[in-house]
Design brief:
eleven-stranded mixed β-sheet
Length: about 525
């Protein structure tokens, strides 16, 4: 029987890219769509933000029929179908987003690797979660298989906007590093990979020479549609003291023709009004001292974008803050560890920059070896007038830790006063680990996953991440910095000392006994 070549390629998980428009979907199904967008924003300290956004829509697969994947990556669709995933978020982040200098982040992620999954089957959620993390570990060449029960939580307040039945699981690996091994499979999931469109600018040699990098994917499914979104945000240095530079010089590659299967391909440049952008954009929009230039790559071919600074504009980073409107995030959060010795505490500072009351949800997962005391929790808020008072949470949810089983989870719902600074603090004692549970660099300490502060943005809020659709209610998460805890560490040099000492004694003892057993002793006659 003759099998068409297209069917063979689809069965092997390959992507077929045609020079024309995508083929029409059968009646009663949702047509597949793909869009690619790039946002270039000049930050207040002179650095440049590149935010890549790729989105794919396709029909939802059913268990009772075979599903043919065209634009959507087959491996992601099969993983979602096998493990009953209705919503999935995965992010690899390296570096800290400095909101005081750079403003609102394009999308909120914490340092390390984070997995959030909404599973359909609550009864078998643990087995599905284990299979899901192992499958994602193989797909993205990461250490997600180490997301075990000790680092898995089930949030109830912080991710309430994502819960729609089933079981919610959250895992975090704060020490996971981002490298090209994670970026390569991420790029291969694009329909045109890095051969055309804005994806042609994904140059690993330049992307990893950065101050901040976040590689993420999000999967959402409903009864009819499967939505898959891939985002990459990177902050790089602009050419120093150079009044004219091009995008190709920044990333080491030039723009290519749009992906043939893309329904939208655009580049958006946000720059101060004193910066001239060439070639002229298809449309422009001014907001304060910044101008947004929009390029539609499907209407015309754009090989490169050049930026020229006017003579009266000082390119020194110290003057950027006065010429560039930097939107301040509504909520900022920072955390650090206090104390010394066998005890300590965790102190989190949450700042509300708004002139109105803001309701936030605080989430913190503390490893079991930091024995947290919930009765020591204190929340104090200082308003704009300098008055400090106790702040009573609306809700408190605390799950105690189980040694080598699960972390302690603290969730709070707080109402932050306008223009306030809220300090949240609790104490802990440091536990003792087995010598086999210490990492190779035990004296460095243990990295604690960041705390998460989540809140909602109203449709009228303009200072919002790029991932939020304008004019809609958007749920925003703010991540603190990871904390570093120093635990009692055994002297790992002792085994070496014992082995050396023992071997020395054995060598001396063996040499003496060997000489006694092998040598012949004879009485020599005195010489005459």
């Amino acid at each position: 029987m003759h099998i068409p070549r297209l069917a063979v390629l689809a069965a092997c998980g390959s992507f077929v890219v045609a020079a024309g428009t995508p083929s029409k979907a059968p009646a009663g199904t949702t047509a597949e769509m793909f869009s690619e967008d790039l946002t270039i924003a000049m930050l207040a300290d002179g650095r440049v933000l590149l935010h890549f956004d790729f989105e794919m829509h396709g029909p939802q697969a059913t268990n009772s029929s075979l599903h043919s994947y065209g634009l959507l990556p087959r491996q992601i669709g099969e993983i979602a179908q096998r493990y009953g995933v209705s919503e999935l978020q995965l992010a690899f982040t390296q570096g800290t987003w400095r909101e005081a200098r750079w403003g609102v982040p394009p999308a909120a992620q914490g340092i390390g690797a984070e997995v959030i999954a909404q599973l359909a089957d609550d009864a078998d959620a643990d087995a599905q979660w284990s299979g899901l993390t192992n499958a994602l570990s193989g797909v993205f060449c990461a250490s997600l298989n180490f997301v075990g029960t000790e680092s898995t939580t089930s949030p109830r307040l912080a991710f309430a906007h994502t819960q729609r039945g089933g079981a919610l699981r959250h895992g975090f690996l704060p020490r996971e590093n981002v490298c090209t091994e994670n970026l390569t499979p991420w790029i291969k999931q694009l329909p045109c990979q890095a051969q055309s469109g804005v994806a042609a600018l994904l140059n690993p040699h330049r992307l990893f020479n950065m101050h901040f990098l976040s590689v993420a994917m999000a999967l959402n499914s409903d009864a009819d549609t499967l939505r898959y979104r891939q985002t990459l945000s990177v902050v790089v240095d602009a050419p120093a003291n150079d009044r004219s530079w091009a995008l190709s010089a920044l990333v080491g590659r030039a723009l290519a023709a749009p992906c043939p299967v893309a329904t939208r391909s655009s580049v958006r440049v946000v720059a101060p009004a004193a910066v001239q952008v060439a070639p002229p954009a298809d449309s422009t929009h001014s907001a304060g001292t910044s101008v947004t230039h929009l390029f539609d790559l499907q209407r015309r071919r754009v090989d490169d974008i050049e930026f020229t600074f006017s003579a009266e504009f000082d390119v020194e980073p110290k003057d950027w803050a006065t010429t560039n409107d930097t939107p301040v995030p509504a909520i900022a959060a920072h955390r650090h560890i206090t104390g010394h010795g066998s005890s300590g505490g965790i102190e989190t500072v949450i700042v509300n920059h708004r002139d109105a009351l803001v309701t936030v949800a605080y989430f913190d997962a503390v490893p079991w070896y930091l024995r947290m005391y919930a009765h020591t929790l204190s929340v104090r808020a200082t308003d704009a007038n300098g008055h400090t008072a106790q702040l009573a949470p609306n809700q408190i949810m605390f799950t105690p830790a189980v040694d080598r089983g699960r972390p302690a989870v603290l969730e709070l719902e707080l109402e932050l006063p306008p223009q306030s600074r809220t300090v949240l603090r609790y104490d802990f004692d440091k536990g003792f680990l087995k010598y086999s549970e210490h990492p190779p660099d035990a004296n460095r300490g243990f990295t604690i996953a960041p705390a998460i502060v989540s809140y909602s943005l109203a449709p009228s809020d303009t200072a919002r991440p790029l991932a939020c659709t304008p004019g809609t209610v958007c749920a925003v998460r703010v991540y603190t910095e990871p904390a570093l805890a120093s635990l009692p560490t055994p002297d790992f040099s002792m085994p070496y000392n014992v082995i050396t000492f023992t071997c020395t004694i054995l060598a001396l003892f063996f040499g003496r006994i060997f000489n006694l057993l092998t040598r012949d002793f004879a009485v020599l006659a005195p010489a005459k």
